[in-house]
Amino acid sequence: MSRPVAAAAAGPDAAAGPGAAVDPVIRVAGLTKRYGGLVAVDAVSFSVRRGEVFGILGPNGAGKTTILEMIEGLRPPDGGTIEVDGLPVWPDPRDVKRRIGVQLQATALFDLLKLHEIIYIFGSCYGLYRSRAECAELLERVGLGDKTTGYANELSGGQQQRLSIALALVNDPVVTFLDEPTTGLDPRARRAVWDVIGEVNRDGKTVVLTTHYMEEAQRLCDRVAIMDFGRIMALDAPRVLINRLGAMVTIHFSLSGTVPLDAICDLDGVASCRAEAGAGFAVVATDAQAAVVSLLSLARERDLAVANLDVRGADLEDVFLSMTGHRLSEEEDDGHETAPRKRRAFGFGDGR
Fold first, then answer.
1. Which of 205, 230, 273, 303 is 20 to 30 Å apart from 164, CA to CA?
2. Whole-angstrom Cα distance, residue 197 to residue 208?
3. What is the CB neighbour count within 10 angstroms for residue 296?
4. How far is residue 219's CA from residue 26's CA, in Å, rounded to a whole number?
5. How confident is the model at residue 5 (pLDDT cuts 50, 70, 90)?
């Protein structure tokens, strides 16, 4: 019953659709990085269109930050080529660094300087000496217009992230790189940062971001590259990747008694299935109505109660699970990001 998503080819314009090769602002080919015997980035190739929001989605340790650092000129690759705005990044990344803006996972701020002063200092590093009005205008763009004369140590976590985005925009970059821009933020602050990223993109800026939040990638990105173990497993628009599952809904439920996984996989309209914690199951269905009716019939025949029934459309979480055999959220919830992870090549429902 299992039917995993086929990985998109990972060439420079893989799965990009019509027009993808038109005016790419970033070209990456065969990019590789090793740390001793560990291959952190394994011959990765892709391109980024000018003006799009391009996401790199994957768990901690997948190679996302390493890729960004090589493109940004912060970490030399062991193999492959990188071009940004038609310029080779390596062996001398200085020209590229002048054309890009970078927001790192953690930014050290001057706690006792006013925000407009911080903007001025960062601009001066590029030979740009912004007026106070220009600094205030940039802060206004990221929703900090009322904090111009405030101090960095007075900002909340979400406000500090918005300030770090403003600093990444101070040199009017061709491409802005955002590395895990909302990690550690509460839902309200996260959505505020999403709004800022959307505004930056609507102003015509190309944005490349890394994330391990499915909803963030699905909401913000024109295209997303799904990574695991240093490789791009699939690359396309989020909706295309979801549709490629061949299933429109995922159904979660639990039963009051024991039922073999085979019986769940054999429900009408079910494309693949998976046992979950306790007595829970998850199925991907091409026909939600047929699957639910068949489930209720099975429960009636075996005198079981169905509980926690939840029917929802497929999302990038389902794509990631089908591609890698594990949920990205499991990496976070179980603390797997700090422990070695085993390669698993099976798709959604292959446990049957």
1. 230
2. 10
3. 13
4. 22
5. very low
